[in-house]
């Protein structure tokens, strides 16, 4: 079988920006460094009043189709991953297809459409579904469109408020891909957890501190499962994009991941000269003693040159977009991959044939680890992106404007707010139909 993976990618950020240190922190009476240094975030992106998960997803998909010169007939599958859906029956992918059919000749009537839900990990699950469909030879030469789109809003004054974000990532999955090929091997860590959920409600119920523990526990399990099939030596991977609810979470996951993948390798031996070998559970009488030893080892590991060099090279470059936009839920790990590739392109690094270790996660909870091999066309693809321009052009909200925008997107409120930006060459939410369906139109 030829390789299957991501042939092209596009992102669409919500057009509004909330500056965390300048605007949010003073209004909350907080030290700005809690956000910039603690959480690792500079800003959140928000949808303007005419934007939602459909417009952001359709706009990213249109840009991708235009750039790749695709017609509807070339696409045999449209899957949308989201945890911000507004309908329990009609999938967002049908709305997205309806939007695209307004502007292209032809239609998607013979494309299979669906919607994937499992918190943030569903973006990767939709990618896996597309991979499997193509690898099974059921695609009839057609590609799959996978769209991860979310408005990651939390209730006002809740613990997650500073980590909000909104945006979409569209990915074209195909044989012989230009950007990355996905590995057969996958590792899973999955358990019935109650840390973050939305039981028939728009904004999440979240136990923030516990959600971080659950993230790390499931990630460790997924890594162990992946390691049972493939090597994970730190030097085998150019970058390790993690699901990034905020960069501070990845700082913790990176340290845990490194300890794990360095164990029983030449690196552990090298580091042992400075801080000793990693504690092994069998050497301890009780769990408590073992955990204390692990904590102390991690504190030392964090300060070693080997770890810091690895973090700076493999993790830091994955965080640059996230710092500016916040959590995009289903799209988050996919913008981490884009950030890494953009960083390699900007620094003139050769990446073809190098590998990425991709660590996805969704609350509730499940982690998934797979590897990717960078393909020859990666540079051309990422150089076509307009991420910097999109981020620069966002409208910078005052705190009072932010409050109104949050209300405008709150499904329980009926708040009329004028738009802050002018739509141009994009799909917009234009009102409601007779069955309460959302209506969209393309603005030239
Ligand atoms: P919080 O109470 O806002 O913040 O909650 P904090 O007091 O814990 O501080 C955060 C960090 O900033 C800490 O760093 C502080 O020390 C530091 P740490 O000790 O953890 O390394 N800090 C400062 N640093 C420098 N200068 C200062 C300063 N002040 C504090 N002045 C929390 C944080 C994550 C709980 C909150 O933001 C939250 O509830 N977020 C939502 C849940 C979340 O994102 N969980 C992450 C894991 S679960 C996940 O990723 C899944 C998710 O994406 C959903 C899905 O899958 O669908 C969320």
Report on the structure:
- This protein has 444 residues and is of the alpha+beta class.
- The chain has one domain: Thiolase/Chalcone synthase (Peroxisomal Thiolase, Chain A, domain 1, 3-Layer(aba) Sandwich).
- It contains 15 helices and 15 strands.
- The chain starts with a strand and ends with a strand.
- 3-hydroxy-3-methylglutaryl-coenzyme A binds next to α2, α6, α7 and β11.
- The site of 3-hydroxy-3-methylglutaryl-coenzyme A (HMG) has 30 residues, from α2, α6, α7 and β11.
Task: List its traits.
single chain; 444 residues; alpha+beta; Peroxisomal Thiolase, Chain A, domain 1; eight-stranded mixed sheet; three-stranded mixed sheet; 15 strands; 39% helix; 22% strand; globular; binds 3-hydroxy-3-methylglutaryl-coenzyme A
Structural class: alpha+beta
CATH top level is Alpha Beta
Overall morphology: globular
* CATH topology-level name: Peroxisomal Thiolase, Chain A, domain 1
Strand proportion, as a percent range, falls in 15-25%
Give the cofactors and ligands. 3-hydroxy-3-methylglutaryl-coenzyme A
Radius of gyration: 22 Å
> How many strand units?
15
Number of helices: 15
Query: Which CATH architecture would you pick?
Result: 3-Layer(aba) Sandwich
